Structures are given as C-alpha cells and as structure tokens.
Amino acid sequence: MAAQKSYKSMVCPFCSLHCDDLIIETSDNNIRLTQGNPECGKKISRHNINSQSRTSATINKKKTGLTEALKKVKKIIEKKSEVLILNHGTDLSGLRSLLTFASKYHCIIDHITSKFLFQNIGIVQRTGYIATSLMETKNRADTIIIFGNNILKKNPRLLDRILIPDASLCVNPKKKNIILVGSFDKNTINSISRKSNAINVRIKLDNIPDFLKIINNNKSETLRFITKQSLVKINSIIKKSKYLVSTWTASDFSNTKNPEDIISSISKFIVDLNITSRAACMPISGPLADSTSAQALTWLTGFPSRIKYSNNSFKHNRTAYNSEKLIENKQVDTVIHVSNLSENELIMNKNIYNIVLGHPNSKLNIEPDIFIPIGIPGLDHEGIMFRTDNVVSVALKSVRKLKLPSTQTIFNKLI
Ligand code: SF4
C-alpha cells in the first residue's frame, strides 16, 4: 500500500484567493483535499496524474528527452524572427526567468487574460478607483454587492472566507446585506440567506450601468427590469450602510455589449458613495496567476503586460502586442505557451510554430511542435504567487515528488 502523507496549511494555487489553510493527503503522488469545500476538492484533484497525462517531452508527437527538446527549442528560437511568449499562468520565479529569456531573444510577452486586466486598469487610468483588500472586506464591510453570475463558482470559498465568514472583527454576519446582481441560482441564494440578508437583483448584466445610475440618484422610479419595491429596499440598505464593497470578476462581463462601461459604472457608483459614506471596489482577478503576472511585470518592466524587448528595454503597446491579434494576423512566427496552473485547453494556431511548456494534463486543440511538461507551483515545487488584492504574496510548498521541472528551470536552461 502506498504511503500516505498529510499536509496542513497548504497554500492553494488554483484561484486568486490563495487560501492557506488546506488540509490535504497525498498517496502515490495523488492529492486529495481531506476536508473543506468540495468544489475546491474537485479543482485540486484535476491536477492528479492519470493515464492520459504527459510527463515526457515530445517533438512532433514523438517522445524525447528533456535535453533534446531544449536543444530543438533553442534552434527554433534562434532562427525565428518574432517570438511571442503567451503566459497562461505561472509563478513569480517563472516570470522572472521568462523575462530574462525574453530580453535575450527580443520576445513579446502577453498574458492570456490581459484584456480583463486592461479593462480594470483602464478605469484606474481614466477616472481613478477606490479599492479595498480581502481582509478589509472580511472585517469591515456591512453591505456587499456581487456583480456577475460566475464569480462564486470561480472562487468557491469567497463567500465563506471573505464575504460572510463566521467570524469577523467588526460585523455580525447575520447583519450583513449581500446584494446579488445577475442571475444567481436558488441554492446559492438560499445558502447566503441562511447566514445573512440576501437580495437577488435578477437583471441582465448589460443593465448594470442603468441600475446603478438610479440607485445612486436615490430615485424610486421603476425600471423595466426591477420592481419599485426592490428598488426602495436596496436604496434603504445602501443609505444605512457604513462600509459597502462591490465585487466582480471582469471575465463575467465578457459576453456583455460593453464590459468597460459596466466596470466604469461600478467604479463611479463607489466614488459617489464616498461623498457621504464609505465604500470600495474589490475586483477578483482570474485563476491563471493574473495578479502575479501583472505585479511581477510591473515592478520589473514598468508595464503589466503586452510588452516587447527592443533597444535594451521593454516597451509596452496595448494594441501592437495584443497576443490575440498577433496570432490572428500571423504577425508572430513562434508562440511559446507557458501554462502550469491549469489543464484547460490551450488553443494553438496551426500556421505558427507552437512550443508548449505545459501542465502535464494540458488539453491541446492540435499537437504542438514541441511539448515540455512542467511542474505545478504549490504541488511539484515551491513558489510565490500574489493574492487577488495584490497586498499579500503567498509562499507555495512542494507536496509531491513527480520531478517535473519548473518554468524557471526550463527558461534558465534556454538562456
Ligand atoms: S477558494 Fe480557490 S484558493 Fe481557496 S481552496 Fe478553493 S480553489 Fe483553492
């Protein structure tokens, strides 16, 4: 029987909350969450190795050794003229080495979800922004407005740990008001109602700017998507609130007509509330180390994403270095996909040379020219990542012995 090992206080790398209190068990390098949220348990077990996992490097589908694969990568990079490094999620040391590599080979760097980052940053640049941290929200917020339908699924412990925790320094959870804007399922509303006062404003996400305009003007007029009675109730809650927090994840707005308008309206709503009360925004970043990438790139280059090394420094251009457009318009001839936090499908363009430094369970739309399996920070090797509110960095431990190299190891060998 395989030896079992238990770990307490494991830091979870799989969403931007980075909970640090997980109790897990490993057996034969299989990881199991022994107590806690079952959704998180499912997220974690998706990273276990199975019969389909790719634990060896391949060149044109054929298994090869790591040294051979690296030699081939070097050869290709030296010949190609425009190389894009597309980050699908990696840890801090991976990013540092990726930047050093990019500066040697004059590469472009982008994060796969940078469009969401720029939606939030755009508001900060244009109008300013009042933000808060997870801990402030946990301990001080008496009213929380959740915008969007999937934020709680993407961050399974957001409710229990931050929004309505059992223990909070200043607010009794039973007295908290949770206003859910969007279509939330009955189970979610019922589970929130058991702990605090929940109200679901069931409107289309496209209607958020109109909804907030009316709330902010404190008018009791009826909109076609909300009853007068609900409006009066919400107005009264907001008026009495001492510390209101708005939270959302930008990817929830990706199917709306104007995501930037929605985020901008939420930000304006918060700024206006601060005239008479206290309120703040708490956007939740994505699970692909989005915050870690933006933080590391900003300190080291001055820009959060969409950069290229040329003339001895990194230059930023939000339009010219947009990976989606570069690939679509075939303005790059090689893409190095770096992905060690998710097994989600990596989409590659068959007209471009594709190199994948990937999660061993990576799904791939087409076979890449070169695949090199890399370890997962927090499971296979130590690492550092940033929590969604950017104020805390967490240290990840190694809890299994698969001997997969880290992103840092691979880039260091290529420099
Ligand atoms: S909420 Fe996120 S960080 Fe926390 S345990 Fe679940 S998946 Fe991991």
Structure characterization notes:
With 415 residues, the chain is of the alpha/beta class. It has two domains: 57-113 and 288-380 and 405-414, Rossmann fold, CATH 3.40.50; 117-283, 3-Layer(aba) Sandwich (Dimethylsulfoxide Reductase, domain 2). Helix content is 34%, strand content 23%. It has 14 helices and 21 strands. The chain has helices at residues 38-45, 66-79, 92-105, 114-127, 134-140, 151-154, 158-163, 186-195, 208-216, 228-240, 259-273, 290-301, 323-328, 407-414; strands at 4-10, 22-27, 30-35, 57-59, 62-64, 83-87, 108-111, 143-147, 177-181, 197-201, 244-248, 279-283, 307-310, 313-316, 334-339, 345-346, 353-358, 363-364, 370-373, 383-386, 393-396. The strands form five sheets. A nine-stranded mixed β-sheet has the order 5-4-19-17-15-6-7-13-14, with helices on one face. Strands 10-9-8-11-12 form a five-stranded parallel β-sheet, with helices on both faces. Strand 20 (383-386) and strand 21 (393-396) form a beta hairpin. Helix 9 packs parallel to helix 11 (259-273). The longest helix is centred in the middle third of the chain and has 15 residues, at 259-273. The chain is globular, with a radius of gyration of 23 Å. The two termini are 43 Å apart. 45% of the residues are buried. The structure holds iron/sulfur cluster. Iron/sulfur cluster binds at residues 12, 14-15, 17-19, 22, 37, 40, 43, 155-157. Iron/sulfur cluster binds next to helix 1.
